[in-house]
Amino acid sequence: MIVEIEGLQKIYNGRQRVVAVDGIDLNVREGELYGLLGPNGAGKTTTISICTTRALPTSGRVRIAGVDVVAAPAIARKGIGVVPQYNTLDRACTIFENINFHCLYFGFSRAEAKARTEQLLEQFHLTERTGAYPSQLSGGLAQRVQIARAIAHRPKVLFLDEPSAGLDPQSRIAMWDAVRGLRQEGITVVLTTHYMEEADELCDRVAIIDHGKILVEDTPANLKASIGAQRVYLLDLKDCSSVPVLVDGLKKLAGITGVEATDKGVRIFAQGADGLLSEIVQAANPYGLRDLTINETSLETVFIRLTGRDLRE
Length: 313
Ligand code: ATP
Fold this sequence. Notes:
By secondary structure, this protein is an alpha/beta fold. It has 2 domains: 3-224, 3-Layer(aba) Sandwich (Rossmann fold); 228-296, MTH889-like domain (Alpha-Beta Plaits, 2-Layer Sandwich). The protein is 33% helix and 29% strand. It has 11 helices and 14 strands. It has a 6-stranded mixed β-sheet, sandwiched between helices. Strands 2-1-4-5 form a 4-stranded antiparallel β-sheet. β12 and β13 (265-270) form a beta hairpin. α3 packs parallel to α5 (139-150) and α5 runs parallel beside α6 (169-181). The longest helix has 14 residues, at 110-123. It is elongated. It binds adenosine-5'-triphosphate (ATP). The site of adenosine-5'-triphosphate has 13 residues, from β2 and α1.
């Protein structure tokens, strides 16, 4: 295992005591693309900060490629690349200089640094912007430069904290392609995200994290299959006073695998059964059916099933 996290805990003792990471154990295999999926405040950034030697754990242990990040941070850092949540490119330097200086900082000779920088600019389709300054780049391009810079010293593991936050859909897809491309170099990637599509599209395995704890960990396909449903129907009702009666009635319909009350009505988990939609509508009409949303099962559904909450709430 290239990333080993054991019993990790981080408590912030400020004005308020916050348990940001509450006993996380996880292992990432070499070459894997691993995702930490959870809502804001779940403890993802704190976990990454500890892994990348930017924060100290309260207890527990992290080893990257066998190196303990607390005992030997300087050695650990050589094996780690990191793209934090915010743009940390040097605004006074060109794109070329940002990457080149990173290489020199990690001990490359001038010639090696230049060659590596040129190679990365090409790999990340940035050659036309070599002389540009960070302020002249779109969010998507800046993010690609940050990734190129983070892997310039050939780390074993790249940590990406919310890599597509603030990116438009097109830039997000370009960023996903860039991250997938890292597989060819054998780099292990650990990313945090609160976008279920991102975790689903990119990751070999995903840990769903909430309130500093891992709730489940598996491949996206297995996580979705664990729901035992293909579709989720969300009913918005005018009259919620007798929802429990409706819930009981719906549970009896063939194809429905789960029903739960929500603030505004009912959430139904179902396998594809012919005619189910009209049966649901018929059952819900007496309660003043205001709106109906149908979604395919996603990692969001898994989160909802586990916590009763939406990822974005
Ligand atoms: P986000 O994507 O919003 O950063 P996250 O899942 O990465 O969310 P963290 O940033 O790790 O979550 O935060 C976890 C909890 O720890 C939150 O309740 C946050 O308010 C708290 N926290 C984070 N940093 C500090 C700090 N320096 N001092 C006190 N509390 C903190």
